[in-house]
Amino acid sequence: MSRLRFLPATAPAFLPLPSCAMFRRSFLQAGSLALGGLTLPELLKRRAEASPTTGPSDTAVILIWLQGGPSHMETYDLKPEAPAEYRGLCRPIATVTPGMNICEHLPRHAKVADRFNLIRSISHQFANHAGGAGRFLSGHNPLRPLDPLAQHPCLGPVVSRMLEGRRDPAVPRYVGSASNVYGGGAANLGAAYLPFVVAGDPNADNFQVNNLSLAANVKDRLDDRATLLSAFDQLCENIDRTRAMDTMDKYNQEAINLLTSGRARDAFDISQEDPKLREKYGRHKWGQRALLARRLVEAGVSFVTMQMQNPNIPDAIGNWDIHAVNGHLFKDTAARLPVFDAAVAALVEDLYDRGLDKRVMLIVSGEFGRTPRINPQKGTRSGVIQPGRDHYPHAMSVLVAGGGMPTGQVIGSTTAKGERPLDRKLDPNDLLATIYRHLGIDYRVTVPDNAGRPTPLIPTGEPIRELLA
After folding, report:
1. Distance between CA atoms of 204 and 208, rounded to whole angstroms?
2. pLDDT by residue (tens digit) across 212-256?
3. Which residues of 240-260 are buried (b: 16+ CB within 10 A; e: fewer)?
């Protein structure tokens, strides 16, 4: 199938555009959409062939993914009474929820702590990034823990597959800020279930949905914004006259419906937001990604993954993998957490203020925690001995909010040095079961593996009872 293209007004009209006047804002660059090497019509065709339709639903999940593994000891599970080589330099502060203390660099979290829960007792056994992410997001032990390609279908693609036909086709079911989480992916489900990718920095003045782009020959002929808008208007008139949609391939029709959907257009157009709210989230990549996630689920997207890495601020490394060789643990924490604090706290508050707290579940996590004992080493760039923590899957903290759940809870605890769960030990699968339940997906169902054998969606796990309404 050839790539879908929007043609200039002088070309023969063949692509019908319902309500084309709505196309005049954030979807100025539209044309071939490549997701995992597929054009959008091909993507839709594969999905239709792969899955039956079921009843409607409108629940959604936002996953804020902290690639690299955040330190539980510097965020949500501080140990001020532990020996110095464990507790580090950060100090806990009280929150509006009695008994829930968090890092001093998260003061805005502290003000909305009655609207989220902290799970402090999730653990697993895979201490490298690919294996840890694959284990956390799929529920299955990876056979090749160092392989960055998913060996089992992970959370986002599973949601996209299982909700086939149950959601409004005018918006994508699954949107991500990257084509894949490192170590995650669709595995045997195939590329049709990878996310609709919205990469880049939503805070940039020239931000656009950069997997929507005009064909090269159109770009050559349309030199400025005014000419582009005029061309689209004329194209719409031609299409409306010819009624070409009647003869168009079904999947091209669906592709056009998606690209020209008013709801999709508005959802991606972050410039529509009140500047004061944008400031509240933080005028940086992380804050505006969080805001974009809210816009997407509000518009009907079922699952959104926004990665918070590469904050582009002094003293902070690219992701959350704060080994001593990569950077100074406490300098990185002091620089990174205020940016993170603004983005996540604003998102939590916004979901509740807009009445989305029952429909939308928010998960904030990485693939594992960090070693409770600090491991000083010589920094690759600094050339001096500095503190850091290494990979540690045996204890980690996860923030959860929304989803109609009771909030203001601390679920589980770790030992005095933060080394392992002390009570209410939980598995990533318990969180997955909770997410699937919220989305109306039967987590006990079996799905075929690469050899066609029935395999449990997740082999173990039950919804976390404290999170059930």
Report:
1. 9
2. 433 444 334 434 444 445 554 555 555 455 444 444 444 455 455
3. eeeebbeebeebbbbbbbbbb
Q: Cite the beta strand spans of 76-234 per DSSP E.
A: 92-94, 101-103, 116-122, 174-176, 196-197
- CA 437/CA 106 separation, integer angstroms: 30
Checking if the pLDDT of 130 tops 70, the result is yes
For tokens 């959370």, the residue is: 155
With beta carbons less than 8 A apart as the criterion, state whether 77 and 70 touch.
no
State the Cα–Cα distance between residues 329 and 263, nearest whole angstrom.
Answer: 43
* Ranges of H-type helices in 274-427: 275-281, 285-299, 329-353
Q: How many CB atoms lie within 10 A of CB 110?
A: 20
Mapping DSSP to helix (H, G, I), strand (E, B) and coil, where does residue 271 land?
A: helix
* Residue 219, C-beta contacts closer than 8 angstroms, at least 6 positions apart: none
Beta-carbon contacts of 222 under 8 Å, excluding residues fewer than 6 positions away, are 8, 214, 228, 231
Check: CB of residue 7 under 8 Å from CB of residue 251. Answer: no
**Residue 35 φ then ψ, to 5°:** -125, 110
Closest CA to 340 of 71, 60, 59: 71
The enclosing H or E element of 183 equals: none
DSSP label at residue 349: H
What local confidence, expressed as pLDDT, does residue 129 receive?
97
Write down all domains in the chain, each with its CATH number in brackets: 60-215+273-467 (3.40.720.10)
Single pTM value for the model: 0.82
**Pairing between β-strand 174-176 and β-strand 303-307 as defined by DSSP bridges:** parallel
Distance CA 86, CA 272 (A): 46
From 33, 45, 13, 60, select the one nearest 260 (Cα to Cα).
33
3-class SS of residue 91: coil
Residue at token pair 């996630």? 293
Look up residue 377 and give its two tokens: 């080493």
**How many Cβ atoms are within 10 Å of 89's Cβ, its own excluded?**
14
